[in-house]
Amino acid sequence: xMQTKPSLLRISVALPLSLFGALILLPFVAHAMEQPFxxxxxxxxxxxxxxxxxxxxxxGYGGLVSFGHALFLGLGAYSVAIPxxxxxxxxxxxxxxxxxxxxxxxxxxxxxxxRTTGIAFIMITLAFAQMGYFVFVSLKHYGGDDGTTxxxxxxxxxxxxxxxxxxxxxxxxxxxxxxxxxxRLRVSPFGMVLRGAKMNARRVNAIGLPARRYLLSAxxxxxxxxxxxxxxxxxxxxxxxxxxxxxxxSGDLIVMVVxxxxxxxxxALLGAAALMGMEEAIxxxxxxxxxxxxPAIVLIALLGKAGIAGFLAGIDARLARGxxxxxxxxxxxxxxxx
Length: 338
Prior knowledge:
Blueprint: H1 11-33, H2 36-61, H3 70-85, H4 91-113, H5 118-137, E1 148-149, E2 155-156, E3 159-160, H6 164-186, H7 189-206, H8 211-237, E4 239-240, H9 247-260, H10 267-285, H11 289-303, H12 307-333
Antiparallel strand pairs: 1-4, 2-3
Helix pairs in contact: 1-2, 1-6, 2-6, 2-8, 2-9, 2-10, 3-4, 3-5, 3-8, 4-5, 4-8, 6-8, 7-8, 9-10, 9-12, 10-11
């Protein structure tokens, strides 16, 4: 009887793993080519992938359409900028300020926002982000609308995150850990309750599990992770600006999550790489890149409603059906019972 070996690795898993492998090798290739721009640009992609991963926790797992996650990205950036203004370059202090600020703001704004649903939730999160934007614009002591330069970037164990290769390695490590954590969380009891609350919160409440409390926990964790991404972004740019808190940034994060695949473990990385890579590629051809970029995003969204991860999963399904049909045909030809 003929035996068929199962596929060792699905495309939906192989492609993201290959992408991670390429990201690990990229600094060495860029150094050999003497093109430091690639390291800086890809570091930005990785950092936004971390921010999109945080939103994927709230939106993809919990169904919370937050249009205000730029608030936490900005808080993370100013958690570096404000201590640095006073000459504090200790990264652990920056990280502590980031976690406490984003955690508390996430707890307060989440508790208020979760009293609503649907479009009201979207508008309230957007309102909180705009409030944060105008607060930092009014802080003239720290540059106001012009932002502030960061002269003392975060230092951990003597490593300066102001160096492109160092911030790249740190951001990639954070993204890898966040992706692994999302994969574990997805199949954990906490993650299952979140996904259940996304589908039907009333049923989750009916079996004795407080859906709102789980959703609030996810929102706070999401805020903290997004703040860490903002902290990394501030070190990469050596600059913090209220524009980081703009609703446009929140919209970009939502596009990344949807484009990569809602609730997909690797969706944030795929979406960030596709969105920012396509934007950079179009910029090389025309200065009117936005006129092409917008319709391109709409077209991609229409062709693949489940995102890139869903498209890859569909290929896996078709290949699996093809293999199953091939096994059936071989067994039939050999006179075996299928």
